[in-house]
Design brief:
The complex is a heterodimer of chains A (about 475) and B (about 290). Helix content of chain A is about 35%, strand content about 15%. With about 475 residues, chain A is of the alpha/beta class. In chain A, strand 10 and strand 11 form a beta hairpin. The termini of chain A are far apart. In chain B, strand 4 and strand 5 form a beta hairpin. The longest helix of chain B is centred in the middle third of the chain and has 14 residues. The chains are: A alpha/beta (about 475), B alpha/beta (about 290).
């Protein structure tokens, strides 16, 4: 690349994602981002400097060869681009939509320092959506005759199952709910991740020979040991699904609900539809507690299900919000209010919640991790009227398999594994995703599922991998 | 495709031809007005279910997830028996189903099993359809060498269920009806008070309407008789994920679906549960009206 082309490219502005108008979209669940056209994708891809040392790849938890796939898009070799992405990412249509790219690949992009980073997420989504019909997945190995049970059909389980199938193993995925996808179907709303996208990924896996068994709450039905009787290995990817509450007075009043409950009623059970069988409590004034993507999903869902005012209360400041920047911007465009440095200390009401008592917080000096803490300011309580409250302050690991003999659990209730292979202390049993790390992101769970798939493949082929000693 | 995604047609049922697991109804009959007993193919539940555990059912592809009682399981045949009282739209939709048809989803078993041990003299109390939950536990307790006294009550004789089944497993059965049309006239609490006034009782297990369980808890607290109740709060997933089923027991918040459904009655905040169970009553009423008008 000549210096003049380089300079020219650096002057090109980032290609905006076409999106629906904030006011139009805030009453329905159609997808907000419309996706790049071919022309827009090629334009955006042509901004890439094709760095000799692509730092963007370092920022990707699964190491997608970003420079190569972006170059393929710029050359209009879209099928090649899809193949490159799918070598390292088994759910690109999902990740292109929900990854926090600004903290990962795009955060590392050198263009970010001069103008704005390459829109890697938008390009990944484009490539994956375009390939969906033509199925650009590398072909699998010959059948090995080995069978693997995957417990949980969320991002970790699906990614693990995809690779195991590709390695030639027979995979059965066990899901406790009636639909596959885990947090991708019950948690992330339709307007951000259409369920058809998840369904297409699942259908693709079925096409590759993966079996799905729904309504199978492993741990209450079969134990892990029961699964080991009919499978050669087990992968546990049951996630962090147990909602945390604030542990303050009045939290059990009617109208105070977890983000999991609120989102599941709408996303999985379709409570937003006019003839819905499943109810959901929204109310006029909705308060959402938390600052992560789940809080944003909940508040934007509240707007779409009829809330007249919807406010996010976060105990830190906007700078510390873990939510994706795009979600925060989209929420503002849809009329969501944000209140920072406020933390609930009590809820009041007769049977239904009517008021929320908040205490004002102030920032403290940054700690060792560089993040500023907060502390309450004495006597600064204020009461605000609310009709419903959605608590989105994180999830604890799912406990349904925690009493499995031979598994070592941490004091946080997560499963202890060898980080390289995902192997637990129990022979033949692997784990990955939020059940190992505690609540994290889709892409990290996927990465863990894929590492475990490699670990399982090695274990099944050599049979030599002993249960890891994890001290 | 037997799994259907996104916005699917209302009331569509899986086609048995390409459905991996069909929760087919083998038998269905009313055992009391509005109370139906189903025998359903559900091999996974049949194999792993233990007394005290429940299932979550969706009647149709668009249906609500509701917890239901398993009264009996046959692991060999792969069937379970469910008892459904038609009170809301979902349970009435279920009760309109009959043998040869199928239930869309049956997930389970869920919840912790009843604690079964040789406690000594154990009284099981079933009120209304609560009797269906208490029956398998009574049977397991009898097999574990307990002396089991069953007290079964209902508003009126027609609504009594499982009396013969309990007579076959319990050492004695006392029947009460509010209107005196069968057994003794009065409430189960009256019968229980009488028994504990004349003999030593090691344990009470009471399952029925909230009011009944609260009253029994009041009755056994001064006597310090360990008392277990099975709670039925609103829940969505039944696996600990939604937190909708949270109950207060001994001042601590518990999730009924994973920590229960059985709890120490003396610690349960029944008022809170009654309040939370009324969360969607307006919605329920509207849906029932819709059902009536179609």
């Amino acid at each position: 690349m000549t210096e003049s082309t380089r300079r020219e490219r650096m002057k090109m502005p980032r290609t905006a994602m076409p999106e629906r108008d904030g006011r139009n979209r805030s009453t329905d669940f159609e997808e907000v981002n419309l996706g790049y056209t071919e022309q827009l994708a090629v334009l955006e891809a042509s901004r890439c400097l094709q760095c000799a040392r692509p730092v963007c790849v370092d920022g990707c938890p699964v190491g997608v060869r970003i420079g190569d796939f972006v170059a393929a898009v710029a050359d209009r070799r879209f099928d090649d681009a899809a193949l490159i992405v799918s070598e390292d990412n088994s759910l690109p249509a999902v990740c292109g939509r929900v990854c926090p790219q600004e903290h990962q690949c795009e955060g590392a992009c050198v263009m970010g320092r001069r103008s704005s980073p390459i829109a890697i997420g938008h390009l990944e989504r484009f490539v994956a959506d375009r390939a969906a019909a033509s199925s650009g997945r590398p072909s699998g190995s010959a059948p090995t005759g080995k069978t693997v049970a995957v417990v949980g059909s969320g991002p970790a389980g699906l990614a693990c199952a995809a690779d195991l199938a590709r390695f030639g193993h027979q995979v059965t995925v066990y899901e406790a709910l009636h639909q596959a996808g885990g947090v991708l179907v019950y948690g992330i709303p339709e307007y951000r991740l259409p369920k058809a996208v998840v369904a297409a990924e699942v259908a693709q896996l079925e096409h590759e020979g993966v079996r799905f068994e729904m309504n199978a709450p492993i741990g209450r039905a079969e134990s892990v040991d029961d699964l080991l009787e009919r499978h050669d290995a087990v992968f546990i990817g049951v996630g962090a699904g147990l909602p945390k509450f604030l542990d303050v007075a009045g939290e059990n009043l009617v109208g105070v609900q977890s983000a999991n409950e609120f989102l599941t009623r709408v996303n999985l059970m379709g409570a937003n539809r006019p003839q819905a069988e499943t109810p959901v409590l929204v109310g006029r004034r909705v308060a959402v507690i938390g600052g992560g993507n789940t809080a944003l999903d909940a508040v934007r869902t509240a707007v779409r299900t009829g809330a007249e005012s919807a406010t996010v209360y976060y105990r830190r400041t906007e700078d510390e919000m873990p939510a994706r920047t795009e979600e925060i911007r989209h929420a503002r465009e849809e009329g969501v209010h944000f209140e920072f440095l406020l933390n609930p200390v009590a809820f009041g009401g007769e049977t239904r919640v009517e008021t929320m008592r908040l205490i004002r917080m102030r920032q403290t000096e940054p700690g060792d991790d560089g993040r500023r803490g907060v502390e309450p300011i004495d006597g600064s309580e204020v009461d605000v009227p609310v009709d419903t409250v959605v608590v989105a302050v994180g999830n604890a690991p799912n406990p349904m398999l925690s009493s499995t003999p031979g598994l070592r659990m941490s004091r946080w209730g997560t499963i202890v594994t060898d980080p390289d292979t995902g192997m637990t202390e129990k022979a033949g049993v692997f784990a990955g995703g939020d059940i190992v790390t505690g609540g994290a992101t889709v892409i990290l769970a996927m990465g863990a599922g894929r590492r475990a798939a490699k670990g399982i493949d090695g274990y099944l082929r050599t049979g030599a991998v002993a249960a890891a000693s994890l001290d | 495709m037997w799994r259907q995604w996104g916005r699917t047609a209302l009331l569509s049922r899986p086609d048995p031809a390409d459905h991996d697991v069909v929760y087919a109804i083998q038998d269905a009959r009313f055992i009391a007005p509005d109370v139906k007993r189903f025998r359903v193919d559900a091999p996974r539940v049949a194999r792993y279910w233990k007394p005290g555990q429940f299932v979550i059912v969706r009647a149709t592809d668009d249906g609500e997830r509701i917890p239901l009682t398993v009264v009996e399981a046959d692991p060999g045949a792969g069937t379970i028996d469910l008892i459904v009282q038609g009170v809301g739209k979902t349970t009435r939709t279920l009760n309109a189903l009959t043998s040869g048809e199928w239930i869309h989803d049956v997930a389970g078993p869920l919840g912790s099993p009843s604690e079964i041990d040789d406690f000594g003299t154990t009284i099981v109390v079933g009120g209304g359809v609560g009797t269906a939950i208490v029956y398998p536990t009574a049977r397991a307790l009898a097999r574990a060498a307990n002396r089991v006294i069953a007290i079964v009550g209902a508003r009126t004789a027609d609504l009594l269920i499982l009396v013969e089944e309990l007579e076959a497993v319990a050492d004695s059965v006392i029947v009460t009806t509010d209107d005196g049309t069968a057994g003794r006239s009065g409430f189960v609490t009256d019968a229980l008070a009488e028994v504990i006034s004349v003999e030593h009782v090691d344990r009470v297990i009471a399952i029925g309407p909230l009011q009944m369980m609260a009253a029994i808890s009041q009755l056994t607290r001064p006597e310090a008789i360990p008392t277990i109740v099975s709670l039925n709060p609103i829940m969505v997933d039944g696996t600990g994920m939604c937190g909708g089923c949270r109950v207060s027991v001994g001042g601590e918040t518990k999730f009924a679906c994973v920590d229960g459904p059985e709890f120490d009655a003396h610690g349960v905040d029944f008022d809170l549960l009654r309040m939370r169970n009324a969360t969607y009553c307006d919605f329920e009423r509207r849906r029932l009206e819709e059902l009536g008008s179609t």
